[in-house]
Structure formats: structure tokens, C-alpha cells
Amino acid sequence: MKKVLFFLATLLLFGLGYEAKGQRITTDTEVGCSLDSPPEPNPDDSTSCIRVCSGSQVKFDANTTAAANDITWSVVGGTILADNGDKVTVGWFSAGAGSIAVKVITDDGVVTDTKCIEILQGPEARFGVLPDTLQSFISTCTYRELQFKDMSMPLGTSPIVAWNWSFGDGTYSNVPNPSHEYTSGGHYEVILEVVNSCNCRREYMIEITVDEAEQLIIDCPSVVCEGEQARYTVQKSCGKYDWKAVGGTFQTPSNGVGYVDVIWDQVGSDGFGYLSVYNR
Q1: Is residue 8 part of a domain?
Q2: Residue 184: inside a domain, yes or no?
Q3: Number of domain units in the chain
Q4: Which end of the chain has less neighbouring CB within 10 Å, N or C?
Q5: pTM of the entire structure?
Q6: How far is Cα 213 from Cα 102, in angstroms, rounded to an integer?
Q7: What is the block-wise mean pLDDT of the chain (280 residues), using blocks of 10 residues?
């Protein structure tokens, strides 16, 4: 009779599994609807759900204290992106409810733990460069001011509360719609990170190619007569240009533009007019 009882006890212990004291799934990241102080994960709380953001990648740790023969993870509402045994990285899908569970088999038995997951709705990051905000690749020149327009969407009920811009040249901004000038040619990645009131974050990136401003050459029409109007342009429209006319009057803006229209109505006694252009 004692042998039968011992066999049944062994079967219950090793066949059905048990939860070892102190066994908990923990995470390195948890969010909450407070930008300044998202909640810290509490490894001693076995009932509270872990909050994550939709579209985020979060690491989890089984916190095993004994040598494991096998560790199995299962996820609802997301997918396992990296499995390193006692640690996994999970990508979470759309907002809603989910869960994560781990089963650890050791020489002493089977250890299990399950955590419910609350998946919060994250924002959608997006921006453009005026005037055509639909372009995904931008070509510009040094010293030309670019005006960026935030087009992000909050999606859920949590509003966007922070905008973090990186222009790829070591400069940053935290206003919704910044402007920026590049002083050196090259290829740059402009990244916008938006954060909602639940501390969920999204990024969007646009590549920008910046050309160095070259030597300025004015395209001139043929000889014009006194009192006539003519248009003058810079061969390579790159950067900002300021114009100066001697013997004529501008009919268009003359600062920060690639062309001007001039009426030669103040020609001197020598019969010549003079036009100069300067790259800022």
C-alpha cells in the first residue's frame, strides 16, 4: 500500500507539474498611461497583467533558478521573434488581450508560469517635407531650409504628447513641425519618433540626399533693350540665392530664390546693366 501511494505522489509531482516557489516571468519593459513615469514591472505580483504596446518588441525572462532540461514558451496575441531558452523576445500585434506562458522541465519536476498581457494601442508615426508631403525620398542642397510636417496619427484614445526628431547630422528637435538646413552634402536619415500618453512609441524614417552648392552660373537671354523685361536663372538651382541688380528693377522676389525677372529701366550712360547672384 505504501508503494502505491508513493507512486501516485510521484506521478502527481512529475506528470502533472507544479509551480515552484518564486518562479515568475519578468520583462525588461512595461508601459502605462503616464509619460513621465511608466510602471516598473513587479516580479512578485502573479495576478497583474503586463502592459505592452502594439507593434512593440519586448524581452521576457523565465528567471530559472535550477538547471533546465527543456524550456518551452507559448504566446497569445504576439509572436516569438527570438528564443534563447530562458529568455525570449516577443513582438506584439494589435491592441487587446494576450498572454505569455513558460514551462521549465528540470530534474526536480515541471515548473510553469503564465502572465496575462494587456496590449495597448500605439500611435502611427509619419511625416513629410513641404510642399510635397507624399515624397519618401528627398533631394536637396546645402543651406536650403526644409520644412517638415508631422502627419502622425494617435489611432487609439491616447493622444500623441511628444515628438523626437533626429536629422541624421547630429542635430535634434522636439517640436511637431520643425525646419532644418544641412551645411554639408551627403546622405542623411531623418527619423521621427512619436510618443503617446501611454508611453507607446513609433518611428518613421525618410532618406534625404544633400548636394553641395556649386559655382553659380547665370543663364541669360540674348541682348535686351532698355525698358524690356527678362528672366534670369541659376543653372543649378541648389541652395538659397540673393540677387542684386544695377540698372534694373526686380519684378519678382530677389532673396532666397533660383530665378528673377528684371525690367532694365534704369540703365546708366554706358548702356549696360549688371546682375549678380550670391549663394547664402
Answers
A1: no
A2: yes
A3: 3
A4: N
A5: 0.65
A6: 60
A7: 35 35 68 54 61 93 85 95 94 92 90 93 95 86 90 91 97 97 94 95 95 76 86 75 90 88 90 83
